[in-house]
Amino acid sequence: MLQLNKVDVCYGSFKALSAVDMRVDEGELVVLLGANGAGKTTLFNAISGLLKPTAGEIRFRDKVMNGLKPSAVVGGGIVHCPEGRKLFPQMSVMKNLVMGAYVHRRDKEGIRRTLKDVLALFPILEEKKNEPAGSLSGGQQQMVAIGRALMSRPKLLMLDEPSLGLAPLVVKQMFETIQKINSLGTGVLLAEQNAFAALKIAHRAYVIENGKLVMEGDREAMMGNEAVRKAYIGA
Ligand code: ATP
């Protein structure tokens, strides 16, 4: 579904991504592991059209995506749920959710149905729908951010550090929800520091170090890999 071929991204003279080859197949849940500054956010920004690759090609469902505007990437079926959630804190939960459909959907009835599905996935948001998003707990705000992303009915959902700053119990529920979203048919690309929890729900994973993908494997291979365990799982 998503295919990156030898993608480079530079900030001025600094090469933040170097010859990145990766793929996410239809319906897959793929995890991207890497330390702070390894290049995860840069990679997501390149896929979502916020940064232009300086070399290489990004394809999605056989269409070349390089150079498309972020709104066209969303329209094409890829949505990026950024680190730090980026909600509109004064606006109600409901308005934040509906914003996710604005970029490319005009079908009111369809939007209403998707909203119903999102609220079924996150029942607490139904209760809080008229409250300002900024008044919610961190975990609930993350639900709004994911719910907003789902409002555009993506084929691929990219989640950048969704567990950041959340309490352990909330993190557990968050990963269960991500797995559920994937099992309902949405491909997921998940960047996480919380490697163990992320690998538990992954089909495959990549490791990125200093802007280069240095390892790839399925869940079992990654979980069993000594270097991965040492660097990212700590056991
Ligand atoms: P984190 O989890 O801390 O966000 P990351 O893996 O997402 O880390 P990136 O934010 O993609 O990493 O950063 C990759 C590299 O690019 C780092 O060395 C970072 O300092 C550098 N970098 C990121 N954004 C810029 C920018 N706007 N200008 C210059 N360098 C940048």
UniProtKB/TrEMBL annotation:
<dbReference type="GO" id="GO:0005524">
    <property type="term" value="F:ATP binding"/>
</dbReference>
<comment type="similarity">
    <text>Belongs to the ABC transporter superfamily.</text>
</comment>
<dbReference type="InterPro" id="IPR017871">
    <property type="entry name" value="ABC_transporter-like_CS"/>
</dbReference>
<dbReference type="InterPro" id="IPR052156">
    <property type="entry name" value="BCAA_Transport_ATP-bd_LivF"/>
</dbReference>
<dbReference type="InterPro" id="IPR027417">
    <property type="entry name" value="P-loop_NTPase"/>
</dbReference>
<keyword id="KW-0813">Transport</keyword>
<dbReference type="InterPro" id="IPR003439">
    <property type="entry name" value="ABC_transporter-like_ATP-bd"/>
</dbReference>
<protein>
    <submittedName>
        <fullName>ABC transporter ATP-binding protein</fullName>
    </submittedName>
</protein>
<dbReference type="GO" id="GO:0015658">
    <property type="term" value="F:branched-chain amino acid transmembrane transporter activity"/>
</dbReference>
<keyword id="KW-0067">ATP-binding</keyword>
<dbReference type="Pfam" id="PF00005">
    <property type="entry name" value="ABC_tran"/>
</dbReference>
<dbReference type="GO" id="GO:0015807">
    <property type="term" value="P:L-amino acid transport"/>
</dbReference>
<keyword id="KW-0029">Amino-acid transport</keyword>
<keyword id="KW-0547">Nucleotide-binding</keyword>
<dbReference type="InterPro" id="IPR003593">
    <property type="entry name" value="AAA+_ATPase"/>
</dbReference>
<dbReference type="GO" id="GO:0016887">
    <property type="term" value="F:ATP hydrolysis activity"/>
</dbReference>
<feature type="domain" description="ABC transporter">
    <location>
        <begin position="2"/>
        <end position="235"/>
    </location>
</feature>
